[in-house]
Write a structure and sequence with these properties.
Layout (H helix, E strand, L loop, with lengths): L2 E2 L2 E7 H6 L25 E7 L17 H17 L3 E2 L5 E2 L10 E11 L8 H14 L5 E12 L1 H4 E3 L4 H10 L7 E8 L5 E4 L11 E4 L15 H10 L63 H15 L1
Helix pairs in contact: 2-7
Length: 322
Amino acid sequence: MSVRPARPVALLAASILAAAGIGFGASSASAVTTAGERSVAAECATDVHADEATAGRSPNAKDPHDVSPAQAKAMEAQLSKALAAKGLTRGPSGEARKPGGGGAFTPTAIKVHWHTITDGSKGVLSSSEISSQINVLNSAYSGSGFSFTLATTTTTNNASWYNGLDYGSSAERAMKSALHTGTNADLNIYSADLAGGLLGWATFPKARVSDMDGVVILDESLPGGSASPYNKGDTATHEVGHWLNLYHTFQGGCSDTAGDYVSDTPAEASPASGCPTGRDTCTLPGLDPIRNFMDYTTDDCMDHFSTGQKSRMQAAWVAYRA
């Protein structure tokens, strides 16, 4: 996972990297909080990926579960292998290409299965609140080829799932095992009161999804929630980006060879917080992409995906979820 000053990043499920033969050393995740920032949470490069925290986050804190360059490289190999298995290749912008040329992606409406977890009256969401979050996703992903349609909703009163839900926990596994529905192409979103000030986490795509697939978000990060300045719905935007195979913009630091595997996002040494105009942490061309949805800035600051990120999401969709 990656930690964003005001938004949690998803844990990559171990199954993804395990399939690639990648292991992780033991480390303990920690959240660092500072006034006015979001706490930094750990992000695991396996199947689940945990993101930023609400109380405050320090961009200087070390995320013990960030995806290493070697792990990212192995994941890229898996993506190319999955496309090749379908007779496809990667184009110059990372897009999926058919033999002889031509794009392989077609615009897609993603079915969303929303799971509201509560503890009595705590965590209850109205239909309008959920609809507002779906609207935020559709606005953020406009022009990407993806749209989102609410297919089903469930509400589950379970205090042990709601209070302090943590990524990789037995509570998360029990919750998802009971509630997950649909196929690789269906997006399951779970809302609860998360542990450690986390804002959310998500899974990266893979050839065979398990019940753990999906996105978990802090209920108060929805539009109008109390997790200001992360209460305009872009925690879900960020986490769905991971679900569609995007790394953070600061993945790989100031690397000009790999980084986030997107050519049009300028290199960034570390996650940004707040909305730091003119931030430039690398000597490579371009200012830090602080307004990109895959950085760690506030909801007010973030406003776009790059063209390359859109191509990457589309390629991963064709490879894993179509």
